[in-house]
């Protein structure tokens, strides 16, 4: 699938208008957004910001919360997620800016923080901020996250850069392929913020049905082993979400997930929490 | 990896490893003969069978080399590049 998507060299046609969402109506919903700074009290929903390094996560975070998380490339970046609040329409949201990561499968500290939050923090909505000029690389993480949660909005950021490079992006096609909303945006100039807020609200409230694209391994023996182990996990930890994904990691010998089993993390998670609602495609 | 192609299909391309790729040549990755976390890392960055790859630039000392793969640049040390099997397309 990724091969069909545009890459910086693959498409030289001039860009169309970004989208109806970020053309003339840039500030339409500005009155509905309330930046709440560090105040996350009484939030109705938790929203995580994930993505590769340098895709504009902190820029989005700042635009929504009014805070000043460091923007730009720096060594020794945020290791734990910064938190802030915003209000949109009648609800309050807690926003968590996760460390940039290329993967949820490597055993590095940044990736563990992002992964543990997505897997065990169970945010209501995960916004994956992707670099529209490096879509192929970025989609790796998007697909990995879609294996964990279907409650995802893809923020197709740096769309201004993409257009400058002569790239046009078919976000509708992408949304269809991924099974979740895709919002083109240029966070630095606050373009597309309104559409992002709208999509976050819809996924948070469940007013839009997502059908996250799931990856299958096509190997009967692997699939059988995964199924057996997943069933065993569910017996051991009733109510545990993502047993299939956890089973795959255990079969891979993933040290972070083995730790979660031995240190009791999985045990704690197996009692359902109000935030554990899942909209994943069943039976995959 | 499952599909390790060692021969060159119909003589149209040459099988070798990435460290032997020259500037201006374009290659396709056929196998990643590296194990453990580094393998995972490479695949997460887009180096996997089927990816097209070429040299973007070489550092002043000749090592590491920056490669362009799937629209992004990554830097690899020579010993890493040696573990990446490729077929070079004809110039
Ligand atoms: N051109 C452009 N630059 C952006 C946009 N969003 C963020 N940036 C820039 O991209 C760089 C990385 O942004 P940052 O928010 O720190 O990314 P993070 O590492 O994902 O948190 C900064 O220099 C931002 O100013 C955008 O929509 N368009
Ligand atoms: Mg940041």
TrEMBL record, chain A:
Region ranges (Disordered): 263-284
Compositionally biased residues, Polar residues: 268-284
GO molecular function: ferrous iron transmembrane transporter activity; GTP binding
InterPro entries assigned: FeoB_Cyto, FeoB_GTPase, G_FEOB_dom, GTP-bd, P-loop_NTPase
Cellular component per GO, a single term: plasma membrane
Coiled coil: none
Taxonomic lineage: Bacteria, Bacillati, Actinomycetota, Actinomycetes, Actinopolysporales
Signal peptide start-end: none
Protein name: Ferrous iron transport protein B
SUPFAM superfamilies for this protein: P-loop containing nucleoside triphosphate hydrolases (SSF52540)
Domain of life: Bacteria
From TrEMBL, chain B:
GO molecular function: transition metal ion binding
Ferrous iron transporter FeoA-like domain sequence ranges: 16-88
SUPFAM superfamilies: C-terminal domain of transcriptional repressors
InterPro entries with a match to the protein in the record: Fe-transptr_FeoA-like (IPR007167), FeoA (IPR052713), FeoA_core_dom (IPR038157), Transcriptional_repressor_C (IPR008988)
UniProt KW ATP-binding keyword: no
Record keywords: Iron
SMART domains on file: FeoA (SM00899)
Record-linked PANTHER family: FE(2+) TRANSPORT PROTEIN A
Protein name: Ferrous iron transport protein A
Organism: Actinopolyspora mzabensis
């Amino acid at each position: 699938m990724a091969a069909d998507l545009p890459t910086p060299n693959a498409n030289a046609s001039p860009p169309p208008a970004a989208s109806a969402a970020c053309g003339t109506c840039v500030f339409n919903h500005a009155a509905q957004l309330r930046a709440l700074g560090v105040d996350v009290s009484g939030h109705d929903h938790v929203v995580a910001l994930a993505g590769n390094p340098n895709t504009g996560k902190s820029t989005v975070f700042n635009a929504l919360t009014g805070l000043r998380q460091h923007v730009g490339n720096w060594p020794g970046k945020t290791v734990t997620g910064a938190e802030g609040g915003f209000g949109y329409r009648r609800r309050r949201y807690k926003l968590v800016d996760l460390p940039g990561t290329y993967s949820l499968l490597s055993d590095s500290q940044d990736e563990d923080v992002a992964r543990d939050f997505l897997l065990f923090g169970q945010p209501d909505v995960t916004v994956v901020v992707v670099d529209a000029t490096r879509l192929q690389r970025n989609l790796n993480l998007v697909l990995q996250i879609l294996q964990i949660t279907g409650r995802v909005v893809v923020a197709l950021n740096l769309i201004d850069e993409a257009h400058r490079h002569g790239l046009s992006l078919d976000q509708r096609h992408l949304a269809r392929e991924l099974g979740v909303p895709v919002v083109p945006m240029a966070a630095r100039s606050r373009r597309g913020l309104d559409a992002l807020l709208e999509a976050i609200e819809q996924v948070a409230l469940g007013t839009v049905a997502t059908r996250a694209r799931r990856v299958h391994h096509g190997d009967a023996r692997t699939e059988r082993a995964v199924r057996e182990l997943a069933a065993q996990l569910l017996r051991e930890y009733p109510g545990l979400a993502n047993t299939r994904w956890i089973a795959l990691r255990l079969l891979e010998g993933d040290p972070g997930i083995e730790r979660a089993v031995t240190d009791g993390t999985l045990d704690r998670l197996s009692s359902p929490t109000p935030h554990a609602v899942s909209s994943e495609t069943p039976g995959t | 990896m499952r599909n390790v192609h060692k021969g060159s299909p119909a003589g149209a391309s040459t099988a070798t490893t990435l460290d032997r790729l020259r500037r201006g040549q374009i290659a396709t990755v056929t196998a990643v003969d590296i194990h453990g976390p580094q393998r995972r890392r490479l695949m997460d960055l887009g180096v996997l069978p089927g990816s097209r790859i070429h040299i973007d630039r070489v550092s002043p000392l000749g090592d590491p080399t920056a490669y362009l793969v799937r629209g992004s640049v990554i830097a690899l040390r020579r010993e890493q590049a040696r573990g990446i099997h490729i077929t070079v397309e004809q110039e």
